[in-house]
Prior knowledge:
- The relative contact order is 0.19.
- The longest helix is centred in the C-terminal third of the chain and has 16 residues, at 74-89.
- By secondary structure, this protein is α+β, with helices and mostly antiparallel strands.
- The protein contains three helices and four strands, in the order αβαββαβ.
- A four-stranded antiparallel beta sheet has the order 1-3-2-4.
Amino acid sequence: xxxxxxxxxxxxxxxxxxxxxxxxxxxxxxxxxxxxxxxxxxxxxxxxxxxxxxxxxxxxxxxxxxxxxxxxxxxxxxxxxxxxxxxxxxxxxxxxxxxxxxxxxxxxxxxxxx
Length: 114
């Protein structure tokens, strides 16, 4: 998928690209956002974790969206709505909503599940 997006960005560099991915304990799932971030400095990432990863590494514990060339208002909208999303996710019980630049943190901070 990363190679396909790389080719697409060469053909249409200003296009807005959205990628959904599962949050799994597998290494491929954990490294995909970093690989996508390497494609473009103009990117946002948002994840909703509904539970802590299982000790055996089985199952999906959340899902994520990666946006390359996001609409200019998206970062502000994520920032404005992150507290509501945290509350809806049940933050503090292994659940959390995280959003921001590709490395997370709309203001350079990392938000982690409690």
